[in-house]
UniProtKB/TrEMBL annotation:
This is Cytochrome oxidase biogenesis protein Sco1/SenC/PrrC, thiol-disulfide reductase involved in Cu(I) insertion into CoxII Cu(A) center. Gene3D superfamilies: Glutaredoxin (3.40.30.10). Belongs to the SCO1/2 family. InterPro entries: SCO1/SenC, Thioredoxin-like_sf. Signal peptide: none annotated.
Length: 184
């Protein structure tokens, strides 16, 4: 049974993308990508970002969301050059760059997988106001699973937060919204 101790805070919605004072935030991270390169938020200046937090052993939410992201990217046509999808692992113990490379390639060649040390991941999840927690579970690989927020973040070409898409938002809805935004 999967616990969700953060309640409605994990379900997505624009309210999640503000800090405690209600201030909008920027994407802010320094992590290692699935090819072993250090990546910072400023590396993606000029691109819209679709950012999702999860883990490669996730049985449901992560593959479903990344499948939707892949469908969005396929539907963007020429717009794909303006959008960068990013998958940030919340499980640095298991999700090495090589593991991430295999995982993201199952969905879309353009998705960049990011990982880091436990401290780097903790700092990144805090900066995005993302909930994650390791849960002991005998039946899971290595005896644990991860509980986590399930929203997909959208940042503009200046890495400024725009909105979140709640888990289960269809690729069609995301694509329509994203096309309208990047066309401006």
């Amino acid at each position: 049974m999967r616990r969700n101790p953060c309640g409605s805070k994990c379900s997505g919605g624009d309210f999640l993308a503000t800090d405690g004072a209600g201030q909008a935030f920027r994407a802010d991270f320094e992590l290692t990508d699935h090819q072993g390169m250090i990546r910072r938020d400023e590396d993606f200046a000029g691109k819209w970002l679709l950012v999702f937090f999860g883990f490669t052993n996730c049985p449901d939410i992560c593959p479903a969301t990344l499948s939707e992201v892949a469908t969005v990217m396929d539907g963007l046509g020429d717009g794909t050059e303006r959008v960068q999808p990013i998958f940030v692992s919340i499980d640095p113990e298991r999700d090495t760059p090589a593991t991430l490379a295999d995982f993201v390639s199952l969905f879309d060649a353009g998705i960049i997988g990011l990982t880091g040390t436990p401290d780097q991941i903790a700092a990144t999840t805090r900066s995005f106001f993302v909930y994650s927690e390791k849960d002991e579970e005998e039946a899971a690989p290595d005896g644990y699973t991860m509980s986590h927020s399930s929203q997909l973040f959208l940042f503009d070409a200046n890495t400024e937060f725009v909105k979140t898409y709640e888990y289960g938002t269809s690729a069609e809805v995301i694509l329509t919204d994203l096309r309208g935004r990047i066309a401006r």
